[in-house]
UniProtKB/TrEMBL annotation, chains A, B, C, D:
Residues 24-43 bind DNA. Keywords: DNA-binding, Repressor. Transmembrane segments: none annotated. Residues 1-61 form the HTH tetR-type domain. InterPro entries: Homeodomain-like_sf, HTH-type_Tx_Regulator, HTH_TetR, Tet_transcr_reg_TetR-rel_C_sf, YvdT_C. This is TetR family transcriptional regulator. One of its GO terms (molecular function) is DNA binding.
Length: 189, 189, 189, 189
DNA sequence: TATGAATGAGCATTCATTCAT
DNA sequence: GATGAATGAATGCTCATTCAT
């Protein structure tokens, strides 16, 4: 039971293994242990499961970040932790996210993308606001807006690394440091 | 004649109108004014035209930027112009680019993505290097690497705006200013 | 309640609107205000409702005729009234009848068709017999058998008119007169 | 080659064997010896072949009649021959015709039905006109219009017989005679 | 009786690709 | 190089029917 969850989980699994195009509904339902028709009781089309998957992935991202940021540490360290977390999520899920993003971009679901990312933006916004209150971030920074820039920056930086798998290990650390430095200058006093 | 070009142009046109999934080879060749079989003399599969399209789009982007940046102006102004240019390109082509990106991500062509973007990165890298030589950008900035961060940042900022078409006009300008300020602090002396 | 009736009425409604093929059981039960499973308590399959519908339609036909034939008038006038009535029924229900006929022809229910028409044939047979007793119809006419010919003739004449909606108004009257004259000669003294 | 013909013939064959509903396109193309996709080069849907089949059947009917009517004989005999021919066609094809009629009624092709029957009506019309010229048929008869009544009458008479397979042999002959007598009275001097 | 969630067999249709000309 | 008729594999989706409650 809770068939909806089972479908989403199965879809994540199968999409990861075979890619979206080559995944058949029959693959998903087989793994979910339900009948083919049952899928359509929960999602009206193959692609309609995408936003639900995206939601799950974003949830995982936020959880990962929350788990790794030490809210007692100073801002620079916290920022390092945030970068680490986002890079870590990217390493594990960027392929899946790209897949889902592509799937949503291809169909009519693109408009749901913002809603899906909203919780992530809010977390970052709160995070920055706290630092601003503490006097670490310049008063002139619009935390609401910059939160999106920060997420966009870190994610695109991570993607640039993990998209092309060249001498990773080192690359990753250098990139992280560059982003860290870039951000500190960009927003701090 | 120059059938290859005609195919690419037709593909851009049709993809834009109907989306990648719903575009049939027959649509492309009809618009290109060639026979169905001829397509396969130039591209081995439906998706194989994607990198060629991406190349064209990136070329357009660079041309747009080159045309709008006044190399005599001071860095801050130039940066404004760069942001304007990238936002402008995003406004016109982000949908197409997302589509092409999705198309390449879906198939085996993702590895070509970096090569396609390379000229763009190089231009930005040179642009920053000049400013660094002029003493405007901090010595500690790795222009090579930061060029990618900058492009990633501006593009994601633009995408956040154009993806969801809310009260654009104002939004766009505010977002541009925020990015400009963000960047100046991030990299300048 | 009286769910059986409700199902039949709903089926008539929906079949008329969407055609048999495109009508789903779910459409019928929705309109009937009952659950999907309930349908199968009254009819063993989708098509099994067809004979019931046919019965209803034939009942309506007979009622229409009875209501319009003045049994005091002379035979020629009565015949005109019969023709009018059958044409009127055809105008309103021929589409539905064709649909039901098609539905029954498509499945195993065709054999029930005669039983459904039987009351109609009997009415006509009695009608002719009376006229024969009165000396209006030739003695040599086998009323039993000719009743079917007469119904077949009038119905096919009506169908030829209403199937193709060309300049109706006039057409209808001419056709009716032709049928009337045809019949009078065919069977009267 | 002449794939269109091959498709029509195969469709007639398979529809007759399995009925329209249970016939798959794959059955038709298999018998026609062509690829599945090729079917759709000639007919846009499964049902779209119906009018083409109807045409073939009507052609056969006309051929049958022409072959059996002795244009040297007197009208009464000729009429007997016409009735024989139409009954014979009905015996062989009424099931198929009902099927096709149902198929066309079910879909959007019903409007083509008249065009398909037109040649049949014309033949009958000419036939009656000749008899009228020869003084056998009353001057007051509108041959054009009555031709359709006559065809409708004979066909419905035949259908009534062959639809319900009761003690045929005798039935058929009685019915034929009744129709013959009915018609002679209806239209002759 | 009544329900309606669940089933899963079933197939028309599409369209990228091929190849004889 | 160019053509475009022919191919046929491939699958998302539907919906009549069932059955546990």
């Amino acid at each position: 039971m809770n068939k909806r969850e089972r479908i989403i989980q199965a879809a994540v699994e199968v999409f990861r293994e075979k890619g979206v195009e080559k995944t058949k509904i029959s693959d998903i339902v087989k793994l979910a242990g339900i009948a083919q028709g049952t899928y359509y009781l929960y999602f009206p089309s193959k692609m309609a499961v995408m936003p639900a998957i995206a939601e799950v992935l974003v949830e995982k991202s936020i959880k990962e970040i929350r788990a790794n940021v030490d809210r007692e540490a100073n801002f620079s360290i916290q920022l390092t932790q945030v970068i680490d977390a986002i890079f870590s999520v990217a390493e594990n899920y960027h392929e899946m996210l790209a897949m889902v993003y592509a799937g949503m971009a291809t169909t009519e679901h693109m408009n749901e993308w913002e809603a899906v990312y909203e919780p992530f933006y809010r977390w970052m916004s709160d995070f920055l606001k706290d630092a601003q209150t503490a006097g670490t971030i310049r008063e002139s920074v619009n935390t609401e807006r910059v939160s999106k820039l920060v997420i966009g920056l870190i994610e695109s930086a991570a993607e640039q690394i993990y998209l092309y798998d060249s001498n990773r290990e080192q690359e990753v650390n250098i990139q992280k440091q560059e982003v860290h430095s870039f951000l500190l200058h960009a927003i701090c006093v």
